[in-house]
Amino acid sequence: AGAAESALTAAALRAGVAVTPGRPYFSAEPPAGHLRLSFAAVAGTGEITEGVRRLRTAWDEVLG
């Protein structure tokens, strides 16, 4: 799970979306891989939609 988180985080950044691995946000071993998504600095739903589209591209690149 940790390797997939790191690979997906890197692919998302290449696609223009900044996410962080979720692992540091758990006090114990997480039950599965996680990403932390923040949307506090977006201008509106259009940016969120585009970010999700780009994240999907990164997902497909890493996890097929």
Description:
With 64 residues, this protein is mainly α. The chain has two helices and two strands; from the N terminus they run H-E-E-H. The chain has one domain (2-63). It has a two-stranded antiparallel sheet with strand order 1-2. Helix 1 (2-14) packs across helix 2. The longest helix is centred in the C-terminal third of the chain and has 19 residues, at 45-63. It starts with a helix and ends with a helix. The relative contact order is 0.24. The mean pLDDT is 88.
Kindly, what is the distance between the CA atoms of the first and last residues, rounded to a whole number of angstroms? 15 Å
**Overall radius of gyration:** 12 Å
Report the uncertain regions. Answer: none
Strand content: 5-15%
What's the average pLDDT? Answer: 88
Characterize the overall form. Answer: globular
Helix content: 40-55%
- Count of helix runs: 2
Provide the domain count. 1
What structural category characterises the helix and strand content? mainly alpha
**Strand order in space, largest sheet:** 1-2
How many distinct beta strands? 2
Order of helices and strands: HEEH
Largest sheet: 2 strands, antiparallel
